[in-house]
């Protein structure tokens, strides 16, 4: 029996098998991790060698998770007779403290923007803890200013409510009184944050705000 190898067709079939509510970000994640695996031996040794050479550091865990999902699908689909991932250990990752935006840094960042929209975005990211895609997708009708909540479409295409403060709500009302969206894609928001990071020296990607939101809520007494 010949050793099975990862084929482009199998990767494409795996992607096509994903549930209909799978986000585009998840598709891109699988594509970026699995297409480099095309041609490797589907054996524990082949997978381990690939993981060693394809990436370094904590990113290795992302590749492992992708190839694990792929191997499990191949086995359940009866495309392979043995599941090699069962004999591949989960990569160890270095423990590190991830950056979170503080209230003081938020003030500095807001002082360095020149438009109402960008100030709204910064405050909204910090107040709501929303993901980048959720922020880019909100519209004027999604806000309930009386209750201080916005309805967003989260992971799995599910609706959820996220909070914002009264002060942020006043800025949001000013912007959305004349606009239906933030008029920026996820990439546009990321570019704005990159420029701010270069200007202020404060690491401020969207997930830094999400962590800052969580820490701020815990400090205010909310349970984990």
Binned, the helix content reads 40-55%
Biggest sheet: strand arrangement: 1-2-3
Instruction: List the helices and strands in order.
Output: HHHHHHHEEEHHH
- Major sheet summary line: 3 strands, antiparallel
| Class by SSE composition | mainly alpha
Counting DSSP E segments of at least 2 residues, the number of strands comes to: 3
Strand content: 5-15%
Please describe what this structure looks like.
The chain has a 3-stranded antiparallel beta sheet. It has 224 residues and is mainly alpha-helical. Helix content is 52%, strand content 5%.
Give me a quick take on this structure.
By secondary structure, the protein is mainly alpha-helical.
Features:
single chain; 224 residues; mainly alpha; three-stranded antiparallel β-sheet; 10 helices; 52% helix; elongated
Task: Give the SSE layout.
Elements: H1 8-16, H2 24-34, H3 44-54, H4 59-76, H5 103-111, H6 116-128, H7 132-137, E1 143-144, E2 149-153, E3 159-163, H8 166-176, H9 186-200, H10 206-219
Helix pairs in contact: 2-4, 3-4, 6-8, 6-10
